[in-house]
Amino acid sequence: MNYIEIEKKLGAHNYKPLDVVLTRGEGIWVWDVDGNRYMDCLSAYSAVNQGHCHPRIVDAMVKQAGRLSLTSRAFRNDQLSSFYQVLCRLTNSHKVLPMNSGAEAVETAIKTVRKWGYKNRGIPENKAEIIVCNNNFHGRTITIVSFSSDASARDGFGPFTPGFKNIPFGDANELADAVTENTIAFMAEPIQGEAGVIIPEDGYLKEVRRICDENNLVMILDEIQTGLGRTGKLLAEEHEHVEADMTLIGKALSGGLYPVSAVLSNTEIMDVLNPGEHGSTFGGNPLACAVAITALNVLVDEGMIENSAEMGNYFMKGLSELKNPLIREVRGRGLMIGLEFNPGQTTARQYCEELKNNGILCKETHENIIRFAPPLVVTKDDIDYAMDIIHKVIG
Ligand SMILES: *Cc1c(COP(=O)(O)O)cnc(C)c1O
After folding, report:
1. Residue-by-residue DSSP string for 341-381
2. Which domain holds residue 275?
3. 137 is catalytic
4. pTM for the whole thing?
């Protein structure tokens, strides 16, 4: 069967995947339809932090699927309360609002802080403003691309949603200067993922926290990619010992088995929502909850967060020994690692193609950055194996 031709003919062309057709996965490994094995160094953009088809999560999913999958929130189900408990215990959050995709969690946060702004801060109607960062990635809906600074995410999709102000990422003074009396929130990724693993200087989030407190702004951290062990902590905010008022998680919340996202919030903000004001048919369904509970427990029980920190350092050390003179920088935190080449001189895509031909799957971000983000179950031996190939391909 010609998978690729059929996809090209019948599918929308909104992606440009590597030409590898996968059929099976286990841990850090995936196999294509011809039986070739690859090490997955993308982890579905960090949605499979726990490794492909983790047996405990699969088991929880199969069991729950055969018992009760969906009730809608018109009725209650016996999995939702446990999901809330596990999440709140792990993250110190007060309240949870379950959704499905990451973009929905972002939209939910925007709606909620706007309502809070009008109700609790007395912002004049339709004037609430949220400050966001240049080069952000928060998803693909119209409202979210309204504050993207990426032309290809926006061009041809207007008119856009007003109420956002963009500032440079990583400079807290810019935030302080941008605040007006109608500013209600600041939203950012703790480390910008799609922008190419951009890590702000130490102290940035702490300073952001201080500015948000001083101006009564809601600090929203989008941890959809950085969260759940990816950076070597459960949440990336822990690296700077700060607590956001709202934290968005998704992706690995289900170990990649099912779309599950959530808005974690303090009580004051979440309490502005009343019945009928927001929801989702599938949000908080018992199948999603059962899968997410196990996905969270697996991360903690199996030491994946610590392993991410340790293996991340080991992998980064290996990558920093590469001799290719076109390499500009290796940076990362935990197993969220970016390898940046000098712009214009090489295409990261070519290296990704070549790595694929040698059994390693990763994806370029922008022209000149390769992200290495294997599942958090990766071992030293696996990294040694990968580094041999990376040396061969990249130099
Ligand atoms: C992937 C991602 C999203 C969007 O998640 P979807 O499930 O694709 O809607 C939002 N924010 C960040 C930081 C992401 O990495």
Report:
1. EPTTT--HHHHHHHHHHTTEE-EEETTTEEEE---TT--HH
2. 55-301
3. yes
4. 0.98
